Amino acid sequence: MASTAYVSAARYGKDNVRVLKTDRDAATGVHTVTEMTVSCLLEGDIDVSYTKGDNSVVVATDSIKNTIFITAKQNPVNPPELFAAILGAHFIDTYKHIHAANVKVITHRWTRMTIRGKPHPHSFLRDGEETRNVEARISRKDGIVITSGIEGLTVLKSTGSAFHGFVRDEYTTLPETWDRILSTDVDANWKWKPFADVKAVREAVDKFNPAWEEAREITLTRFAEDESASVQNTMYKMSEQILAAVPDVELVNYSLPNKHFFELDLSWHKGIKNTGKDAEVYVPQSNPNGLIKCEVARGSPPSRGSHL
Ligand SMILES: O=c1[nH]c(=O)c2[nH]c(=O)[nH]c2[nH]1
C-alpha cells in the first residue's frame, strides 16, 4: 500500500526520573540535598523507528534514564539550568542523528531544619509543594533555550483585592466587590535569551539562582502589597517587575488560578450577620476556578492592524 501518512513530529525519552543528590562538605560536615524529577525527550532522524520498526536509531529510554543518573553523579545539579543544559548537550554531542533534547527538571523543596535555634547539618523538611522548574531545549539548530520557573506556590490574602467595573449584561450574576479574598497557586516562568552552547550557560551560571530569588520575592511582595484591581492587573505588574530586574530574560509568563472563596449568608440563623463588611466565615471552592494567563515581553507591542 502506498503510504499516505508520515511522521510530522516525534519525540521520545524517559519521563518522571526521580533523582536525589547529596553534597557532603568534608571540611564542615554540612550536607545539602537536591531532589529532582527529570524528563528528557529526544528528537532527530528517528522516523524509521515509528514507520518501519527500525530500532537501530533508538537510544533506549532505559539508557536515557541511566544517562540522567550518570550526568547527575559527574556534574553539579545546581543550578538546575546548568544541569539541564549539560544533560541535553550530551545527547546531541554523542549521537549524530539526535538533533534536539527537551529536558525538564523539577526541583522539590528540601529546606534545612532549624533545630535548637541552629541550622541542622543534615536534616531537611518539605516546606510546601512549590517547585523550581527548568525547561531546556538543546538543539543543533537553535542552541540552548532555557525557561526557568516556579510552580505550586500557594498564596492567599484576606484583603487588598477588589474586582469591579467588569461587563454587566444578561449573563452577569457576580456582584462587584471592593474587598475580597484573593488566593492562587503561582505558576510563573521566565524565558532567557538563547544561549549558543553549554559554555555560554556556564558563563551565565551565577545569574540563575538570583533570578529565581528575585522572581519569587517579586511575586510574593507584589501579591502582598498590591491593591489588586484584578488577577490580570496584579500578574502584569509582577511580570513587568521581573523583566526590569533580570535583564537577560526576554519573556515572563504567569498562569494563575483564581481560587474562589464564597461569602456565606447566615442571616437565616438568628439574624447572624456574615456578609459584606461582616463576612468572617467563607466557603472555599475547589471548582470551578478562574484561570488567568499572560505573557509579557519587553518593548512595545507590534501593531496589530485594523480589526475593521
Ligand atoms: O481578578 C479577577 N479577574 C477576572 O477576570 C474575574 N472574573 C471573575 O468572575 N472574577 C474575577 N476576578
TrEMBL record:
It catalyses: urate + O2 + H2O = 5-hydroxyisourate + H2O2. This is Uricase. It comes from the Eukaryota. It is found in: Peroxisome. It comes from Trichoderma citrinoviride. One of its GO terms (biological process) is purine nucleobase catabolic process. Keywords: Oxidoreductase, Peroxisome, Purine metabolism. Pathway: Purine metabolism; urate degradation; (S)-allantoin from urate: step 1/3. The keyword Ion transport does not apply. GO terms for cellular component: peroxisome. GO terms for molecular function: urate oxidase activity. 5-hydroxyisourate binds at T61, D62, F163, R180, V231, Q232, N258. The active site is at K14, T61, H260. O2 binds at T61, N258. InterPro entries: Uricase (IPR002042), Uricase_CS (IPR019842). It is an enzyme of class 1 (oxidoreductase). Urate binds at T61, D62, F163, R180, V231, Q232, N258. The keyword Oxidoreductase applies. Belongs to the uricase family. Catalyzes the oxidation of uric acid to 5-hydroxyisourate, which is further processed to form (S)-allantoin. Its EC number is 1.7.3.3.
